[in-house]
Fold:
Amino acid sequence: MASTARRAPSKAARSAIPQLSWRSPQPAPIVLVSGAEDVCAERAIAGVRDYLRAEDPSLEVSDLRADDYAAGSLLAVTSPSLFGEPRLVRVTGVEKCSDAFLAEAISYLAAPQDGATVVLRHTGASVRGKKLLDAIRAGQGGGVEVACPAIKRDSDRYDFAAGEFQAAKKRIAAPALRALVSAFADDVTELAAACQQLIADVPGDISEQVVERYYGGRVETSAFTVADTAIAGRYGDALIALRHALASGADPVPLVAAIAMKLRTMARVAGSREPAAALAGRLGLKDWQVDRARRDLSGWNEASLGGAIQAAARADAEVKGGSRDAVFALERLITVIATRAPYGV
Structure:
C-alpha cells in the first residue's frame, strides 16, 4: 500500500522568487547566491557581471563585506552616479553579517535603487542573516535566487563535469569523463579547472587517451584507483597504488572515504535484479555506477562485503585521529579488502 506521508517542501518550493541556474544567471534588483559550493557561486556572480557589462560597458562594480560593514555603505554604492551608469554591488559574507548590514539590507529591500543590482552571497554556513534571506524569498525587493548546493556525491561531480563540457558544446567520451572525475574526486575547484583546460586546449573531441595524457599521473594515484584495485582483489597493485597516492600528497581521510563510498554502493546494488536505469533512479546513482558496482561484486559475498564495510568504518575512525599511524590503518584496510580476509586482521 502506498504511503500517504508527504515530504516537506524544498526551499525552492517555499520560495516566492524565481530560482535560476548558476550556469545561466540573470540580473535583478536583488540576486541571492546561496549554498556552499563556491566554484558555482563564483560562476554565478561572474555571469551576472558579464550579463550587465554586455548591456552597458560603463557598469560600475563595487564590493562590500557584510561582516566588516561600515554603516551607510550599501546606500552609497547603489545610489545613482552623476552620469547614471548601472551599478553592480557584490556583497560577501552574508552568513556572518554585522547587525548594521542586516538592518540596512532589510531596509533596502523596501526601496531598491533604480539601475542597481545587489548580489548577496550566503554560503549557508550559519543561520546568520536568516531574516534577510526570508524577506528576499518572500518576494521583497524583487529578487531572484541562484542556489549553489555543495557537490559531494560522485554522481553530482559527474553531472557537474558533464555540464562543463555541455555548456562549452564540447564532446567528451564517457570513459574519459569518468576518469577525469575520479582524478579530481576531492576538489570541485580543481575539477572545474581541469575541465576548462581541456575545453580550451583540445581542438576536437576529448577521449580517454587525452585525459590520460593531461592527467595520467593524477588518475593513476587517485583514491578511486586505490579502491578499484583493492576491490578487484589485486593486492599488490592496490598497495603500490596506495603508496603512489600517499607519495603524491594524498590525504588518508578522503582515500578511506572513496573506498567506503564504493563499498557502500556495492552493498546497495547487491542482490537487486532491477534494470540498471531503474535501480540507478531509485538509488540516486548513474547507470554506469550501477553497472560498475555489479561488476565489482564479482567474487564478493555478503560476509566478505560486510567485513570490508566494517573495516572501512574502523579505518575512517583511525585516520581521523583514532590511531597514531594512519598509513598502517590504510594498509590494513587494503589488506582486508584485497584478500577478503576476515575483519579485524
